[in-house]
Please model this.
Amino acid sequence: MEILLVPHPVLRQKANKLKIISKEDINIANHMMEAMIKAPGVGLAANQVGILKQIVTINFEDKENNKKVNYILFNPSIIQYSEETVVMEEGCLSLPEQYAEVERPKEIILEYINENEKIIKKQIDGFEARILQHEIDHLSGKLFVDYLSSLKRNMLIKKVKKLQHLKK
Ligand SMILES: [Zn+2]
Model:
């Protein structure tokens, strides 16, 4: 699996909701998990590997509780946002080496289907809430740079294009 970089058009398309979770979908998710860990990254959306399905994988180190958080989400959606917001620095595997501060809601209520076709609903805050908002944005063709001024956004995208050029 190859991780696509901006300005690839698939990154701007909407991913489709899954009607059933097939073996193939679970297979895609497992491959995404591998690609994400290898990158390394803390989250990956299927758009980023050129697949327009609502699949997200998450992988990060929860330092407070000293554990690895690692899971797959099908059809994830955020059903509630806190009014309180926080500013955090974000990066993205589709925009390597580019970082910017983004303001987002501090807490979310998330709903998704897991690999056992169970519907999970949970309240999340902190770093995990941040990753999820970023990844779920990908599923609707949105990137973290969309929260920045067009000047800053174009600058970061330009840098990625330059970087790709240098690596060729
Ligand atoms: Zn991203």
Q: What stands out?
A: The two ends are 19 Å apart (CA to CA).
